Amino acid sequence: MGFSQRILAVICVVWITAAGVRTEDAYKYFTWTVTYGTIYPMGVPQQGILINGQFPGPQLNVVTNDNVIINVFNYLNEPFLLSWNGIQQRRNSWQDGVLGTSCPIPPRRNFTYKFQAKDQIGTYFYFPSTLLHKAAGGFGGLAIASRSVISIPYPTPAGEYTALIGDWYKTNHAVLRRWLDSGRALGMPNGVHINGRGKGLSTFKVDPGRTYRLRISNVGLSTSLNFRIQGHKMKLVEVEGSHTVQNVYDSLDLHVGQSCSVLITADQAPKDYYIVASTRFTNPVLYGVALLRYSNSRQPASGPLPPGPTTQIDWSLSQARSIRWNLTANAARPNPQGSYHYGLIKPARTITLANSAPIINGKQRYAVNGVSFMPPDTPLKLADYFKIQGVFNLGTISDYPRGGGGYLQTAVMSGQFRSFIEIVFQNDENTIQSWHIDGYSFFVAGMDGGQWSPASRKGYNLFDAVSRSTTQVYPNSWTAVLLMLDNAGMWNVRSEIWARQYLGQQFYMKVAGFAGQDEYIVPRNALMCGRARGRHTRP
Ligand SMILES: *[C@@H]1O[C@H](CO)[C@@H](O)[C@H](O)[C@H]1NC(C)=O
Ligand SMILES: *[C@@H]1O[C@H](CO)[C@@H](O)[C@H](O)[C@H]1NC(C)=O
């Protein structure tokens, strides 16, 4: 047995032992109450959505394979639904918390989410998925730590912080929703917040000389943000569940819905420093400011805010290409990430998804391949389960862009279980896009300007592209991703630009598993609504 084989054998033994110990994965219970309350993200009072009285909502910290049980009580006067951005919900799209999978929780009712953080690590967030509730809060950080038996590819940080950053509108979410319903655009946001505060009120405390992990998520509605810390560099270590090559950056672009982790070392003079999140590709540029405070600080933050990148798309594109998979680091399992050679698998199908902004029935809508999504009155999962006809049909969105205008449809594509596919996001509009796929993470094989063509494959990174669940598509550009459809379920493919998602730039992909690998059966406590009202999950 050669040296590398022996290493492999050792790894296998460790794995089996680890698997043996984890027969009893931990259970973590949470009770969350959702209420309206007054919040001040822009310094003026406005109605916000609180979870357990907090805005942003409580940080959800779990460990790989934990069983997470969250009983959510809705005390709003509207139906409410939470989703988990980037949590794969393996064989369990029932818990995904989007209108295609779940009934919203009616006012004064509750629903208990039960899911396992199966084989995942990393940085994510939860958010309200219906109406325009995301514009009022209701979001929070979600971190999955590695199990203690799994090493992480850097020294254990002295502490960990979460920075939820996002653009913000002072206008009430219900008014914003009426604007969209009537065909009016949201326009420029009013500002940017960091953990729910706009101007220097969120403080991150650090001890001199120590290194911290900062988890950052763009939880905003519309705008790409650049994140940076005065006088400090950031070492990127993780992106949406992948350990990355540990490049050092002065600033990082995070597009809507994206998450990452950086390490920061408190190696500067003991004072306070500005932390900035500023809008990208907008005029004017809006700023959110927080503080990094050394525990022995004797001076307030001073000097100009650290400047962001001055060049626009090219800078952002080349930074995106620099974010790569660390092939030797492991993620949720002991085997290195790079032992999965995605670049050697030939995709069985290419799906090209083109976004557009058609006017339908006199109103602004957004579409994918000409189809503007209409949410069903009955979750697609329940329609499937109870065989309720007329809610949706498979094949109601094509694999390629269609010419002509757009039309409304409850669009559902079918995906073949365990097939490896290529998805090309083609953006012929002059605004940046951000796409997310529930249930999976995908390899971001390539992105570039212009029209994608088969020749574009020559430029793909088939070696160490990062695997994540949300990718940007630059204006008049394409992004190509590769993924294995190994998770049975009904999965939402959506724009993370929230007005676009709300007005139709989304659809579902149904991946039916094989016997024994298929989805779990309907949860006993599933709420019923629409044409499933009055049905029972058990005889
Ligand atoms: C609502 O909460 C109660 C406990 O207070 C729980 O027994 C019940 O299962 C919850 N309902 C749903 C639909 O999860
Ligand atoms: C990749 O991960 C390994 C741990 O397996 C770590 O030692 C190494 O520094 C990382 N490499 C880079 C380039 O970040």
Q: Layout of helices and strands, plus pairs?
A:
Elements: H1 3-21, E1 27-39, E2 46-51, E3 60-63, E4 67-74, E5 82-85, E6 110-116, E7 122-128, E8 140-145, E9 159-168, H2 173-181, E10 191-194, E11 199-206, E12 211-218, E13 225-229, E14 234-239, E15 242-243, E16 248-249, E17 251-254, E18 259-265, E19 272-279, E20 287-294, H3 313-322, E21 349-356, E22 359-360, E23 363-364, E24 367-368, E25 371-373, H4 380-385, E26 393-394, E27 407-409, E28 411-416, E29 420-427, E30 433-437, E31 442-449, E32 467-468, E33 470-473, E34 477-484, E35 489-495, H5 498-502, E36 506-512
Parallel strand pairs: 1-4, 3-8, 9-12, 11-20, 21-29, 25-27, 26-28, 28-36
Antiparallel strand pairs: 1-2, 4-6, 5-7, 7-8, 9-10, 12-18, 13-17, 13-19, 14-15, 14-16, 14-18, 19-20, 21-24, 22-23, 29-34, 30-33, 30-35, 31-32, 31-34, 35-36
This protein binds 2-acetamido-2-deoxy-beta-D-glucopyranose (2 copies).
